[in-house]
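Question (not urgent): is this output format expected?
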Amino acid sequence: MNKKLGAKIGQGRLPYERGSDGVKQAVQTVQDTLANVSAVSEKIPAASVRGQYDLIHVYSEKTKSTVSLRVLPNGKYEFDTLIPEKSSKFK
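Got this back:
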């Protein structure tokens, strides 16, 4: 997760400072979003997104961020990415 968040921060795609402090802040946002869920999307089929996994989006009003999770075959979830706003998948 740190590597993926660090890459997005480095590309300027997340509103955190570059470096370990920015990654720590992003990880904290992921944790806070998952701890304070306001909405969960329906399953988003892999065919409609980049990648090979179905996704779900979890949004928190508290963090104003969305965490995208991969739906794994064993019924578990894996971190996909952090979106610094409410996902367009929510109506």
